[in-house]
């Protein structure tokens, strides 16, 4: 089969590779010429796809920035970004651009699947009319479906093959075609009756996480007042073998999904005079978490008789989660901004993020930096860092991730 993948980021590139590894020919399209050049040279820019895997696929995966190259594909999967605008409303401009370009080359009999996370109704109300500007009718001349992506960058225990894939087509035949496509790369495909149900199922998954993270973050704030160790509480609750799912507190949510996706649903709900209060409340708590972390930093320094102003603060981890280099919406960025406003001298160490150009900062080596900082904060706990060593070499450590549990030291404070 010949499959086109549009948008080769954290979602699209691993997907294109999965199709190619299963013996399909893949037209891999991106609007960013740097990504196309890298792929043409066999270089991957996504941690989960090592260069060796790319090299083995040179024959089957054709990188391109030309939409006409998609006309020979039997199926085209769209994986472009769906961020928020500055006023925190859905920004569908990338999807609209991709769909407009695709409409110009769309062929009879092709299957088009949208994978970008979005509000229910997008595939039917927004994508379909653009594709039909081709003169072809969805459900009759071409097939259309939505299938949410569940990739979790950095995760190795579940793969594209072992993670069930939800699919909802515009018609029964659209669903059948989409199921057939994903059966090539996934062991389990879960059919739902409409694209809208598939779209909403993805939002439910992410809102579930956002609400539960907010709950445990709020509990962490209360535990500070009550002088109870929140990690001990979470650990104890998680020993229940049923009816409880563990979520850990932290410095706030980051990435392209959790801080963004829930607001796609609240936007859609407002169109129907409905207010999604859980989403708003969880968003408020999680977005304020970096502010709370900065108050904890102020207190930790204060207890040493130091002001934030003029203190050197070393942040460990700039990306939003362990093991990846993605800094989108990372709480570390907010913490840097807030600390700088207070006059701190901020530096960071992150083996996955060599520089933060917006802050004119480069990752510093641990050697020497740990010893000289007034305070070292563990913001994102990359597994490659030895945290026992961090505590031993630093004068003061504040751990927002609970990775120092089990270590008792006078210079260590945990969230
Ligand atoms: N990152 C994740 O962990 C994750 C997980 C599940 C779902 N998603 C969803 O998947 C979608 C993509 O996310 P991502 O993290 O892969 O984004 P990304 O920014 O890493 O990649 C998107 C790619 O699309 C390209 N692009 C933009 N406009 C284009 C156009 N008109 N034509 C061709 N290419 C274009 C960009 O150059 C970029 O390479 C989003 O809707 C996101 O919410 C992301």
Q: What does this protein structure show overall?
A:
This protein is α/β, with parallel strands linked by helices. The chain is 39% helix and 14% strand. The chain is built from 13 helices and 15 strands. It has an eight-stranded mixed sheet, with helices on both faces. It has a five-stranded parallel sheet with strand order 10-9-13-14-15, sandwiched between helices. Strands 11-12 form a two-stranded antiparallel sheet. Helix 4 packs parallel to helix 5, helix 7 crosses helix 9 (261-271) and helix 7 (195-226) runs parallel beside helix 10 (277-303). The longest helix has 32 residues, at 195-226. The mean pLDDT is 96. The structure holds nicotinamide-adenine-dinucleotide. Nicotinamide-adenine-dinucleotide binds at residues 6-12, 29-32, 35, 79-82, 94, 97-98, 116-117, 149, 151, 153, 256-257.
